[in-house]
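Page 47, continued from p. 46.
Same chain as before, 106 aa.
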Amino acid sequence: MDVDIISEEENPMLHRTDVTFELTHDEATPSRLQVRDSLAAKLNKDADEVVIRKLDTKFGMRKTVGHAKVYETADDARDVEQDHMLERNKIVADAEEGGDAEAEEA
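Result:
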């Protein structure tokens, strides 16, 4: 699977870069998590800092155009992104991480 960056747009207010990319694949369209890991490796970022927003594959084509948001830190991603996008990208929210520990202490 080859990842080519089409455009990058800085968004300093939200501590992120909006990235449009093209993915060339041999088999079926790769999963969102495979794409996230490949894009993170290409950009030298941690996978938790990359949120894949959209993947669009035309019927019968071996190319996919996608949109992602690459955050400076994983905490920035958790603060800004909607819960359903964090869940789709398998990024655990702070409330879920800290909620269990607080329940055990009480």
